[in-house]
């Protein structure tokens, strides 16, 4: 496992749910940070971050998981309807849904940690936690893809922080509406 993280060795069996895990984790981090950034950009009370963040984590995480379930199930049913034997890769729709949901909730909770633990300054601490979360998700990809951990981590960090910046700018632009 350490060889996979620090070298180009890839564990062929460990990546069965990589798509669900990366997709769920990235979306969880982005949407939760969007709540944090929107609230901070609009200069609302920090307690609002926890309320909206928790609601987002579980409602959006559930929605993502169920959407994954329905899309995977539809894909398999389409193949059966076309007279094909669907290749489910050993992944049932319920399993992919659960992987997506768990990745969303676990990774998506990280931008909220500074608000829960009251690590000040709250928003700056959340930005750092968000960046670390993106980097860790990316670096973890190197366990199942042939890419160095720091390159995989940097790729997700850059893409994720651009999305996070968009969320903050929208919050700033709409601050007067609150």
Question: Gist?
Answer:
By secondary structure, this protein is an all-alpha fold. It has 7 helices and no strands.
Task: Walk me through the structure.
InterPro entries: Ccc1_fam (IPR008217). It is a multi-pass membrane protein. Its main location: membrane. One of its GO terms (molecular function) is manganese ion transmembrane transporter activity. Keywords: Membrane, Transmembrane, Transmembrane helix. The longest helix has 36 residues, at 46-81. The model is unreliable at 1-7 (pLDDT under 50). It is globular and about 55 Å long. The termini are far apart. α2 runs antiparallel to α3 and α2 runs parallel beside α7. It has 178 residues and is mostly helical. The protein contains 7 helices and no strands.
Cα-atom radius of gyration: 18 Å
Number of helices: 7
Tell me the fraction of residues in β-strands, as a range. Answer: under 5%
- The sequence of SSEs as H and E is HHHHHHH
Residue runs with pLDDT of under 50 for 5 or more positions = 1-7
Helix % is over 70%
What structural class results from the helix and strand content?
mainly alpha
Instruction: Report the principal-axis shape.
Output: globular
User: How is the quaternary structure best described?
Assistant: single chain
Quick check: average pLDDT?
88
Largest sheet: none
How far the N terminus sits from the C terminus, by CA atoms, comes to: 49 Å
